[in-house]
Structure formats: structure tokens, C-alpha cells
Design a protein that fits this description.
43% helix; alpha/beta; homodimer; Rossmann fold; four-stranded parallel beta sheet; six-stranded parallel beta sheet; 10 strands; 269 residues
Chain lengths: 269, 269
């Protein structure tokens, strides 16, 4: 294993770019490869078995690119596929749910915590289980937000329609006195200003991206895989199963310094 | 491996209790075993080969107690023995130098970083190497402080003599315009108020304990070893090769809630 080998990131679409953004900041030396399965996005409403199959297809593609570590930058895929993939791969595999959980438990003072995510993530109960095992007396309010991912994937995250959809969707959480809300889907940070506005400024929003990359950084050290000898900044290569035009628009709008030119690939044939 | 098995902590003496203090806060469910080799403290002036041998003796003792993870809560031992012990043990092994490095790099704004430690730690160059590989243009000022550990081990950390010794020792660092000072020895947080006073309030002191325990917490999750099913707070058992009376005095003064009754053992016979 060479330390110059890239770290692989997979997501159902563009959501994992919120994790990439944090990686560019915390791990500027690392080479990275991103794959978004935009053509089959969203994963949220799909049966667990299918999400596991799709996640394996993405994983196998990145393994052909000689990745040294895999980040499942998708909550839905983490919820159902992380354990299995970690067991079968010889490289370290990181998910986004436990980092988000640790950050939420740390942030909450009143132990009233909200979780929003896809139908798949919420139904898996992964966050509830992880939070309860750490804070037995927590009050947890979970809410599936199936309309959010399509908004982001169609590059409408800043549109008036997004404001309306977010406000309507989050209504059930507004009288719950939560002080912390987990953005339990990597797409949701792209809606962050609107979500913050709806929930009010006293609710702390947890974007598991930053915490996930702290875990990646620690594991790179632990397994002696960090690309410390680099003299140039790392590279970022992006692949999508969908429209490269839409992907590039969202990526270049969201990421600070990169000029993303994604490459289209096909999975599952 | 059972998740109820204890985490083992080793140090040349009482210094690693500063890491235990953080563990009691961040990991209240975990069972812990601490071993301080007080009879042979300080390790700092000893040859590397001897420190490695002593560290193995401590490690072997804790392995008989069925630990699920080992924390080398001693910078001198981490500097010379971590790689070897990690390679040979099947349980995760964590040191204190990389966590301290990550925290220092994060904290420093002017990239002028001081490091204080034992003669062994400073001579190993471990911190310099780890910091330079992350921040190539850093200005690093290292200083061995051989008088600090004996002050702490003799329970004189709050005495007037400690103030005098610390002020004299740290003089070479005072005109270096550092904004961050790594307490590169787990004993030094016991001298923290005096060190802070000498260096001035604008210098951020890095105690690697907190960052080390964040790494432990992440690795417990990663390797699925966390004691999450516990319904009672974890236990802490302490062993020392030296005087239990002195050990208990320092431990009970330093730790917030525990009543430490250490047990004396012999190593190296």
C-alpha cells in the first residue's frame, strides 16, 4: 500500500461532496476519488438489499482505482452496508453515522436531539440506536425528509421552492425543544441556510462531514497511510453515473477551489 | 473479545493520570486499568533500549488483565516503543504523540510551536518530525525539561519550588513568539497553571490527553469495542511499582470523582 494512493468516497449522488469539502480543508495533501451514483439517486426510498448491491457496485469500481481507504459518504448506504463492506475489505472503511452521532452527543446540552434523513436511514434506526447506547436518557425525534435529496440533485437547493418544502417538512420538529439537529444525509448541508432559518438559530445543526474527516485523518495516522511526503496539493477526480453537466455545476458551486470535470461511468451492467 | 474488558493505560509514573482524567469524562462506561512504573520513574533520561524493555514489561502485565486496547500514556515510551508494540499486539495500541501533534497543528495560527518534554522525547525528534510532515514551514522550538517529572512524582507540583524551577527552565522559550506550546509529557498538565503563568495567557497549552481519548473513543467505535451496554459507570483499577501512599495522594488530588486505592506490583524480576 502506497501513501500516495487515493482515498475513495462514494455517495448516491452529489451529497458526499459536502464530505469532500471538509476533506479538502483538513487533508489538503491527500489524493481523492469521488463516485456519485446520480443515475440511480435517490437511494433513500429503495429496499435495503438494493442499496447494499449498489453500494458494492460503487465500491468495486473504486477498488479498481487502487484506493487506500473507503469513505461511505452516504447515510443510507452506511446504515445498511457499512458493516458488511468493512468486514470484507482489507482497507479501512469509514461511514458517516457514528461520526455524526459523536458530534451530536457532544453538542447537545438538553439531550433532546432531532434527526433528519432519508426514509432508508430513518427506518434503519441507526442513529437512534447509536445515540441511545451513549446517552440512555436522550429524547430523540426522527423525521424522514424524502423531498430534500431530489431538490439538491436538481440544483434547486437555493430556490424559493426549497424554502417552502423545507419549512413544510420540518414542521413536526418545531415544537420539540430540540437543541441539536443531525443532518443525517450528506445532501442536507447544501440546504443548511434554509434548514437553520426554519429551525431557528438556537438549534445546532450537525453536519457529520467534518467529524467524519477527523475520523479519516486519525485512521490515516493510525494505519500509517497519510500522504505526508507530498509536496503538491492532492488531486480530486470525480465520477458520476448521471449527467456530468449537472454534477459539475453543483460541485463547482459547492467546492471552494476546485475545478471539477467529472467523468461519466456506468454501473450495474 | 468482550466489550466489557478494560482499556489498559501505562506510564512511567503518575503522569498518565492526566489521560485517565480525560477518559473518565469522555468514556464514563469503560472499565480501565492503569499501571505507573513509579519505582523506575523517570523514563526520560534512560536509554531508548531500556525504555522499550520497561514498556514491554508494563504491557505484558496488562495483557494478563485481558485488556481490549492499550494506551501508552507516556510520551517517552510512545516515542521509542509504540511502533514495535503496535506491530506485535493483536489489540489496538494508541500513543500520545500524534494526538498531541494534531491538536497543536490545529491550534497554532502563526505556526511557531514550542514543545517541552523529557530528554528522551525531545531527543527522539518525534514531535518535530510529526509536525513538519504536516506543516512544512512551521518554526519549532524544542526544550527538554528534566526537572519537571521529579517535581510531579514527589507531589510538589503546586509548591513554590515548582514555580521557581518552571520559570527558570522555560526561559529559553519566552522570546520565541510561539503561540502554542505542546506539553509533550503526560506529567506536565499537573504543572499547567504554573506553566501558563510563565508563558503568558496568549500561549495555548496543548495537553495531548483530551485528543488521545478522542482517538481512543473513535477506535473503540471503529473496532466495535466500546462498552455501550453498560448500565453502571466503569471501574478504574490502579497499579504502581512504587509507593501506593504517594500514588494515591496524587491520584485522589488530581482525579475528580474516584477514590483510588492503588495496588503495588513488581516488574522486571
Amino acid at each position: 500500500m502506497k501513501n500516495t494512493q487515493p482515498i475513495g468516497f462514494i455517495d448516491s449522488g452529489v451529497g458526499g461532496l459536502t464530505v469532500i469539502k471538509e476533506a479538502l480543508k483538513q487533508l489538503p495533501n491527500e489524493n481523492m476519488i469521488y463516485l456519485g451514483d446520480t443515475a440511480r439517486c435517490p437511494y433513500g426510498p429503495r429496499p435495503a438489499k438494493q442499496v447494499i448491491d449498489y453500494t458494492w457496485e460503487m465500491t468495486r469500481f473504486l477498488l479498481t482505482k487502487d484506493i487506500k481507504m473507503l469513505v461511505i459518504a452516504c447515510n443510507t448506504a452506511t446504515a445498511v452496508a457499512l458493516d458488511e463492506i468493512r468486514q470484507q475489505l482489507s482497507i479501512p472503511v469509514v461511514g458517516v453515522i457514528l461520526p455524526g452521532t459523536r458530534a451530536a452527543v457532544k453538542a447537545s446540552k438538553n439531550q433532546r436531539i432531532g434527526i433528519i434523513g432519508t426514509v432508508g436511514t430513518i427506518n434503519s434506526g441507526s442513529y437512534e440506536k447509536a445515540i441511545y447506547s451513549r446517552v440512555r436518557q436522550a429524547d430523540i425525534y426522527s423525521l424522514a425528509c424524502p423531498k430534500f435529496v431530489p431538490l439538491v440533485e436538481s440544483n434547486q437547493a437555493q430556490s424559493p421552492i426549497a424554502k417552502k418544502v423545507v419549512a413544510e417538512t420540518l414542521k413536526p420538529l418545531q415544537n420539540k425543544k430540540i437543541d441539536t439537529l443531525v443532518l443525517g444525509c450528506t445532501h442536507y448541508p447544501l440546504l443548511r441556510p434554509i434548514i437553520q432559518n426554519v429551525m431557528g438559530k438556537d438549534v445546532e445543526l450537525i453536519d457529520s462531514g467534518a467529524e467524519t474527516i477527523s475520523e479519516v485523518s486519525m485512521l490515516l495516522d493510525y494505519f500509517q497511510l497519510a500522504n505526508l511526503e507530498a509536496t503538491n496539493p492532492g488531486t480530486l477526480a470525480c465520477y458520476t453515473t448521471g449527467s456530468t453537466k449537472m454534477f459539475n455545476e453543483i460541485a463547482n458551486d459547492w467546492l471552494p477551489t476546485q475545478t471539477v470535470q467529472s467523468i461519466q461511468i456506468q454501473l450495474g451492467e
